[in-house]
Design a protein that fits this description.
single chain, two-stranded antiparallel ribbon
């Protein structure tokens, strides 16, 4: 199963709306914290190695999970 579908399915099964939706809004204005929390959950669900946050600008970011690491040759 694709990782995004696996995470969404986990969110739907466990009634975690933030994982079941494709877009998340944070009413407490702690979007960075929420992003890392959801990334950590996705890492655990997908048996990944870690997560990375790419800066996109003021108040905007994307979070990626890392599934494999290797050296460029």
């Amino acid at each position: 199963m694709i990782d995004a579908k696996l995470v969404r399915s986990f969110g739907e099964t466990n009634s975690i709306d933030e994982l079941a939706q494709s877009y998340v809004r944070d009413v407490d204005n702690e979007l960075e914290v929420l992003g890392w929390e959801l990334s950590a959950v996705a890492v655990r669900i997908c048996d990944a190695l870690g997560a990375y946050r790419s800066p996109l600008g003021e108040g905007d970011a994307r979070y990626y999970i890392i599934k494999a690491i290797s050296w460029a040759g």
